[in-house]
From TrEMBL:
Any GO MF annotation of the entry: lyase activity
Annotated ranges, domain Mandelate racemase/muconate lactonizing enzyme C-terminal: 210-304
Key word Lyase present: yes
Protein name from the UniProt record: Mandelate racemase/muconate lactonizing enzyme/methylaspartate ammonia-lyase
Amino acid sequence: MAVMAPFGSTISPSTSSFFFSQTQKRPFQSLIPRKLNLKISAKASFLPGTADSTVEAVSEVSLAGTTSFGFKNLTETFWVDVQRAEEMPLRVKLGDPPSRLENVAIRVELSNGCAGWGEVAAAAATAGAALAKAKEACEFLRRSSALTLNLVLEEIGNILHGQEYASIRAGVEMALIDAVANSIDVPLWRLFGGVSNSLTTSVTIPIASPAEASELASKYCGKGFNIIRFNMGLNLSAELQVIKAVQAAQPNCLFILDANGKYTSKEAIMVLEKLHEMAVCPVLFEQPVHKDDWNGLADVCDVARDKYGINVAADESCQTLLDVQKVVQENIVEFINIKLAKFGVLGTLRVIEMARKSGLNLIIDSMVETRLATGFAGHLACGVGCFKYINLDAPFVLSEDPVFGGYEVFGPVYKFTNARGVGGFLKHDTIAQKL
């Protein structure tokens, strides 16, 4: 059975074949579809404006293997000519208790007919403001003359500058990059480095009774999950009982504990002591103290590592590149948690480069998002292949899936095919009211 093209787009072959002369103003558009295989060195940079990578253009080469297509080079050579750019509400039913996710979808269509999708993570209280700011970015794209991708992304960064607009910037960046990847007929995981086409995610156990949590953990472990995350910081006694019950039911599972900044450093160290008394040794203790308590975070990290052999991660403490630099320079923790909605796509790539140079370990996570955003994050994680832990389980809490196509799910394993771009798009009925 034929697969539908993304709603509102036309099916067209990849016709973008570009020369790599720095003086050429527009790419040569061949009448015969051609694929480019951009080989980059192991030390190549992902980003525009960073050190040059070693690039070799080879026409009509098989996509087999794990050859990178050179994202940095692509941003400097592919001209983006936007025909349509739209922002629209993305409303999806959540599970138990019943509620509704209110994010924002971004759709960008280029003059060659290729479309790209992005998703803005927005709390229900801020969905209207996010929609308005996304509209501003889309209006710019519709008005703009053709520019190279790096210049378009730079302009979007100026319009959506700073941490306040990071999630909106991420959604627009996703849509633009997806549209370009569709244009050259390349899956995103190859574009970002091609290290792997699959990943394994952890899963989060929601707040529940010990019996319910144990049953749910057994269900997940039966499907192949072996890393379980727990959110903590509300009721320590009850949370410890849940962890104890899950460990008894699934003694071979690994645990990640996320305190979401709810403890003082003394309380966090007390939690570590109690876990030790229970013979529970999580592989990771995320954001144990308030995001601004850098000294407390360092103290907890020292005790966790030296006394209990537990790694500590910063999440809310790392909101900007300057925060990441502080972690690296002062050696505060061993791990940081990355979300596209927190740094944007380009910001995330910069963090990855910083981490690779410094030896900092990385976790990739998401907000409450559909498979559109987690799919993009998954492509990136597979492509760069440098994340120690992956937590892209947000779609599991949705009671419906608005995405057509996209990655394949086999329990904790997400498999990304050779479908071009992110490989998925929103179903018509999800956005019909807007279009």
